[in-house]
Amino acid sequence: MRPRWVAALALVASRAWAQTAQRCEIADPDAVARVRATVERLADDALEGREPGTRGDRQTVEYLTRALGALGAEAAGEHGYEQSFTVPYGVQPGGATALTLTRGDERINLSITDDFRVVTVPGEAAPGRAEGPLVFAGHGLVSEPAGWDDFAHLGSLRGKIAVVLAGRPEPVDPARRRGLDQHHVQGSLWGKVHYARARGAIGVIVVETAPGALGATPYLEASGQGIPVVRVSSRVGAQLLGASPVPLGAPPTGPRALGWSAALVVETEARSVTTSNVIARFRGASPERERLGALVIGAHRDHIGHGVRTSRTPGSTAIHNGADDNASGTAVVLEIAGRIARARLPRDVVTVWFGAEELGLLGSQHLVAHPVPATANTAAMFNFDMVGRLRGCRLFVEASQSGRGFEAALRAANGPYQFDARPWEPSRGSWGSSDHESFLQAHIPALFFFTGLHDDYHSPSDDPATLNYEGLASVAGFAEAVLRGAAAAPEGDLRPRR
User: Fold this and answer.
1) What's the rounded Cα separation, in Å, for the pair 366 and 83?
2) Alpha helices by DSSP H, 43-156
3) Please, which residues have CB within 8 angstroms of residue 198's CB and are 6 or more apart in sequence?
4) What are the residue ranges spanned by the domains of the chain?
5) SS3 474
6) Residues 316, 469: contact at Cβ < 8 Å?
7) Can you name the CATH fold of 95-266?
8) What residues of the chain score a pLDDT lower than 70?
9) What is the CA radius of gyration of the chain?
10) Do residues 283 and 344 lie in contact, with contact meaning Cβ atoms separated by under 8 Å?
11) CA 227, CA 394: separation in Å to the nearest integer?
């Protein structure tokens, strides 16, 4: 979900829900298992947050197309199930980007593929050149509650490049540990670069403490302010520090000069990525299906990768798995698709998993502007975004006033469930910020299903274990009933209200 409603987070209750079954949770165990399996696959660390244009983005498409093929769904994209499109997406390292280490007569030219990556730190990092001696600054952490200052004994860093460990330390002292828990944001990448820069550092090298590859380059944001910043592998860190770097239990003391110097160049250039909408059609049983128009059910399948661009955890480069946002909605649409494959509706139903929603509803805007034949005559759209945190049977349903037949279909479907299905109060009639907006702006009626914001929104903690899967499967069952009610409505009952 796009972060337009972040200001309303203060109105959201805690993440916990009742552990006993709620009256509205009437899903069968098989449905619960299916939605759980989808969420756990798409919100796995291996997909690295499903950022557009990445390997995880591609794996998401492959997962969905395999599932659709198993259902016998008709491919309705421009190339099989896919409708591809290209979008601008920040910047990427330019050809001049380089990192060279020197110590006496020893010289090491590092590889941007295997040894280091450029990183974004909004307001603190920028393209540029830095050449000077390396100075070790522990975790680059400053925390008054913990009595911790990695820079306290360093003096000025003017003309020097700071080397800091990734992540936060785990102090031996319990009081310090509690202090860091209160002030953890200062252990973020933003804090490390901010404090190094404040003391005059001309560049920062962040050492990964976990062994292995660096992984994919995260989203890089164009910036004109700051100093060059890169992260290096643990192997390179061991060369610099003399041993495999490990988290320190207390701020380091004593000499910090490493005996190495570095020449660091960070150059960036405009970047674009290709992603896609995944589209399938389930043909209706009525001979009038083409005249009646199709019902589109959709959810965005992308998330924010390592979170640099829109994370609510400042400076974090951890994987943001997006279990609720929006593996949950993706799972609901796939569950409904399976049910429709077993029992057709009178109208065509088109399932769409949108790409690049987090960049500004770009996938849904592209489909509306460039409809495929299956969506050329769309009667209504149903959107699912963040539907995995059902609490107290409170299911937010937005935009029911956009189509004449929606409210009757909702009332009829809700009989067995008894959801508290009202609009979300903070929306104040704006009907939310997700892919249904693109259809509403094109005068196509749309419904939006949503279970609310929470503290894990756009954070690394939005993981599969935090979801209510019985509630998620129940939302799918309820939405299928709404869809069937709308599909059976007399011609014209779904037309927009004026």
Assistant:
1) 9
2) 55-71
3) none
4) 3-89+272-487, 95-266
5) helix
6) no
7) Glucose Oxidase; domain 1 (3.50.30)
8) 2-21, 182-187, 213, 215-218, 243-247, 254-255, 314-316, 424-432, 491-493, 495-498
9) 25
10) yes
11) 47
**Comparing C-alpha atoms, which of 360, 359, 378 is closest to residue 297?**
378
DSSP class of 6: G
Q: Who contacts 411 (Cβ-Cβ below 8 Å, separation ≥6)?
A: none
CATH 3.40.630.10 assigned to domain 3-89+272-487? The reply is: yes
Within 10 angstroms of residue 297's Cβ, the number of other Cβ atoms is: 27
The tokens for 230 are 């890169």
For residue 51 the two structure tokens come to: 């950022």
| Burial zone of 402 (CB within 10 Å; 0-12 exposed, 13-18 middle, 19+ buried) | buried
Q: What's the pLDDT score for residue 189?
A: 84
- Give the phi and the psi of residue 105 in degrees, each rounded to 5: -85, -5
Residue 314: per-residue pLDDT: 64
Q: Give the pLDDT confidence score for residue 147 in this predicted structure.
A: 86
For tokens 């500004």, what's the residue? 360
**Residue closest to 333 by CA, chosen among 455, 188, 195, 436:** 436
Structure tokens at 74: 């008709």
Structure tokens at 108: 């090491």
Return the amino acid letter for 213: A
* Cα→Cα distances 277→38, 44, 197, 359, 367, Å: 18, 21, 42, 14, 8
Buried b (16+ CB within 10 A) or exposed e, 266-289: bbbeebebebbbbbbbbbbebeeb
Predicted local distance difference test score (pLDDT) of residue 126: 93
Q: How far apart are CA 5 and CA 330, in angstroms?
A: 21
Query: How far apart are the C-alpha atoms of 408 and 482, rounded to whole Å?
Result: 9
What's the Cα-to-Cα distance from 29 to each of 32, 435, 464, 470, 477, rounded to whole Å? 5, 30, 17, 8, 12
Put simply, whether the predicted model's pTM sits higher than 0.90 gets the answer no
- First-to-last alpha carbon distance for the chain, in angstroms, is 27
Q: Which of 359, 107, 383, 116 is nearest to 221 (CA)?
A: 359
In terms of Cα–Cα distance, which of 68, 75, 60, 51 is closest to 334? 68
Instruction: Using the structure block, give the residue that is written with the tokens 């249904």.
Output: 436
Residues 6+ apart with CB under 8 A from 443: 496
Q: What is the largest CA-CA distance in the chain?
A: 83
Q: What is the DSSP letter of 496?
A: B
Q: Could you tell me where the DSSP H helices lie in 247-370?
A: 289-292, 329-342, 362-369
Helix (H, G, I), strand (E, B) or coil at 3: helix
